[in-house]
Write a structure and sequence with these properties.
GTP Cyclohydrolase I, domain 2; two-stranded antiparallel ribbon; 129 residues; alpha+beta
Length: 129
């Protein structure tokens, strides 16, 4: 196999660090294992962040997400683990990770975890006519 899963996350310099802007990434093929049954859990991840000095590199993100495929993890834990790692390497002004897990036993689970840098305030929303 030419590539392998990796827990390393690469970043690159934010090309516009003087501006608040939002990066939205949709990851529809996340999988991990249920720690109770060993059965696969599937989720769509929605990553939204306002970068500061660093942005996450997408191929590295893909390989990082892949690294969870054979790990047992509760939905709440895996979502917070990923957010903590992403925050540690990117140092964003704001980051939100939403994990929408597919139905399991008639139950859907969505976990939302957020990080806000100390002192950062979002700009006021502009409503256009």
């Amino acid at each position: 196999m030419p590539t392998q899963p990796s827990t390393d996350l690469e970043t690159f310099a934010n090309p516009h660090p003087g501006r608040d802007y939002t990066i939205r990434i949709r990851i529809p093929e996340f999988t991990c294992l249920c720690p109770k049954t060993g059965q696969p859990d599937f989720a769509t991840l929605h990553l939204e962040y306002v970068p500061d000095q660093r942005c996450v590199e997408l191929k590295a993100l893909k390989l990082y997400i892949w690294s969870f495929r054979d790990q047992g993890a509760f939905h709440e834990d895996v979502t917070n683990q990923m957010l903590d790692k992403l925050v540690s390497v990117c140092g964003p002004r704001f980051m939100r990770l939403t994990a929408e897990f597919n139905v399991r036993g008639g139950i859907y689970t969505t976990v939302v975890a957020e990080h806000r840098a100390p002192g950062w305030q979002p700009p006021a929303r502009v409503e256009l006519p």
